[in-house]
């Protein structure tokens, strides 16, 4: 029997960039736990336990097709890895895996003879990421009450990563197996650590911030990746609940430099475990307007679609917040957040998105200095010949640039995508239409 007694009393809160948990978690009140069928709720509701993670980890360890040497699944390797960060539910760290042999010798023995042949070795990842639960446990294996939600987040993430249709999906972060790491609150005790692939390019937010001149064809494919990942989650009965650029990781693909993969399922909701209405988590200002109240289960997936619409918009403007083009910079803090919510409650945000005034503002901010420099070297003669002032010529150049931009495959489809994602009415959103629009232009963008 495992025993978990923290050496020091656990803190009632954990430092994290994650938003606060809503009143009802995704597994509270479930009739049957999704990772442990047959485990019924008691009168106080489902209470997670350390063995809810330990038992399934044994089965999941057989799923991975990439070879990680056993030594890198031990606590010493996890504990000596490089810290990437602490979240509300996990501590994430990075470990480099040494290159292995290209081939292995396999010997077959039979009565009176044996045969040895060379076979290609199972590929090893160059790096792996360990995710250890940040949960303090009681002596009986139950988490302290303030950590129940964190353990539920861990279990939900585990469920999403090993769900059959998601495990092999190109746009869901790869699950590579289980290791054992020290409990952050009691280092003498070990916990299963989820092992996932390393995203060489960081999050989608990182990529956009570092590459302000990212080609629109690449942006188009990244948006398609994220949409395909969300469609796959919904097909598995899972609502992500916290779609944002920071929860999308960007890896290198076999045929593309950048492939977006959805990660971080700590606020995800398994629809089959819910009844009636649900409070959903998420991060402002990514959240759909209806998440301020409890939501009917049938409308939960529409919250992801709304957040996706904002994400596509953000990708188009190089990671800048679209609201920066709609709200004066002098409006800050609580007043700014209130204005954002006002825009989202009606369809003002949708109208502003479709009007595309933001596109001209973005172009002027992005290319203004280039056009000014060009005018300095050429405008004198052009202004005399064409009888345009420098200001008029500048406006003409931006209008031409705007017209060219509107012919980009991704930009041409934006109005319809926004119509099917940023509607204030959840029932008017249609993720399948957004997917179809992105796929219809994927060939041009991939070329």
TrEMBL record:
<keyword id="KW-0067">ATP-binding</keyword>
<dbReference type="InterPro" id="IPR000719">
    <property type="entry name" value="Prot_kinase_dom"/>
</dbReference>
<dbReference type="GO" id="GO:0005524">
    <property type="term" value="F:ATP binding"/>
</dbReference>
<feature type="domain" description="Protein kinase">
    <location>
        <begin position="78"/>
        <end position="442"/>
    </location>
</feature>
<feature type="region of interest" description="Disordered">
    <location>
        <begin position="1"/>
        <end position="43"/>
    </location>
</feature>
<protein>
    <recommendedName>
        <fullName>Protein kinase domain-containing protein</fullName>
    </recommendedName>
</protein>
<dbReference type="InterPro" id="IPR051681">
    <property type="entry name" value="Ser/Thr_Kinases-Pseudokinases"/>
</dbReference>
<dbReference type="InterPro" id="IPR008271">
    <property type="entry name" value="Ser/Thr_kinase_AS"/>
</dbReference>
<feature type="compositionally biased region" description="Basic and acidic residues">
    <location>
        <begin position="30"/>
        <end position="43"/>
    </location>
</feature>
<dbReference type="Pfam" id="PF00069">
    <property type="entry name" value="Pkinase"/>
</dbReference>
<dbReference type="GO" id="GO:0004674">
    <property type="term" value="F:protein serine/threonine kinase activity"/>
</dbReference>
<dbReference type="InterPro" id="IPR011009">
    <property type="entry name" value="Kinase-like_dom_sf"/>
</dbReference>
<feature type="compositionally biased region" description="Low complexity">
    <location>
        <begin position="1"/>
        <end position="19"/>
    </location>
</feature>
<keyword id="KW-0547">Nucleotide-binding</keyword>
């Amino acid at each position: 029997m495992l025993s978990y007694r923290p050496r020091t009393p656990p803190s009632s809160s954990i430092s994290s960039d994650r938003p606060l948990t809503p009143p009802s978690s995704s597994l509270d009140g479930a009739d049957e736990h999704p990772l442990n069928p047959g485990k019924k709720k008691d009168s106080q509701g489902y209470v997670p336990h350390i063995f809810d993670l330990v038992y399934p980890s044994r089965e999941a360890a057989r799923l991975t097709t990439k070879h990680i040497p056993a030594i890198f699944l031990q606590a010493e390797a996890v504990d000596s890895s490089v810290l990437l960060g602490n979240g509300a539910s996990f501590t994430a760290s990075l470990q480099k895996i040494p290159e292995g042999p290209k081939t292995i010798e396999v010997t077959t023995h039979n009565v009176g003879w044996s045969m040895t042949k060379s076979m290609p070795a199972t590929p090893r990842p160059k790096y792996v990421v360990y995710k250890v639960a940040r949960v303090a446990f009681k002596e009986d294996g139950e988490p302290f009450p303030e950590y129940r939600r964190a353990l539920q987040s861990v279990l939900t993430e585990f469920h999403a990563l090993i769900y059959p249709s998601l495990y092999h999906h190109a746009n869901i972060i790869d699950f590579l197996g289980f290791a054992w790491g020290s409990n952050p609150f009691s280092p003498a005790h070990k916990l299963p650590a989820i092992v996932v692939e390393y995203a060489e390019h960081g999050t989608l937010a990182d990529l956009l911030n570092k590459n302000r001149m990212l080609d629109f064809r690449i942006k188009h494919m990244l948006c398609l990746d994220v949409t395909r990942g969300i469609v796959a989650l919904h097909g598995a009965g899972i609502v992500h609940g916290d779609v944002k650029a920071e929860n999308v990781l960007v890896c290198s693909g076999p045929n593309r430099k950048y492939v977006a993969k959805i990660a971080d399922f700590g606020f995800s909701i398994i629809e089959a475990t819910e009844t009636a209405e649900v409070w959903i988590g998420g991060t402002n200002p990514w959240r759909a307007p209806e998440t301020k109240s409890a939501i009917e289960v049938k409308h939960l997936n529409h919250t992801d679609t709304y957040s996706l619409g904002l994400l596509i918009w953000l990708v188009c403007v190089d990671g800048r917040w679209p609201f920066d083009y709609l709200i004066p910079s002098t409006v800050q803090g609580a007043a700014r957040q209130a204005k954002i919510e006002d825009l989202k409650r009606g369809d003002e945000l949708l109208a502003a998105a479709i009007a595309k005034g933001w596109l001209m503002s973005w172009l002027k901010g992005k290319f203004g200095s280039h056009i000014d420099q060009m005018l300095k070297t050429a405008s004198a003669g052009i202004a005399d010949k064409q009888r345009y002032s420098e200001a008029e010529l500048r406006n003409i150049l931006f209008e031409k640039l705007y017209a060219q931009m509107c012919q980009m495959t991704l930009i041409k489809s934006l109005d319809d995508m926004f119509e099917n994602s940023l509607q204030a009415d959840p029932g008017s959103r249609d993720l399948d239409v957004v997917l179809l629009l992105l796929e219809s232009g994927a060939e041009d963008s991939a070329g």
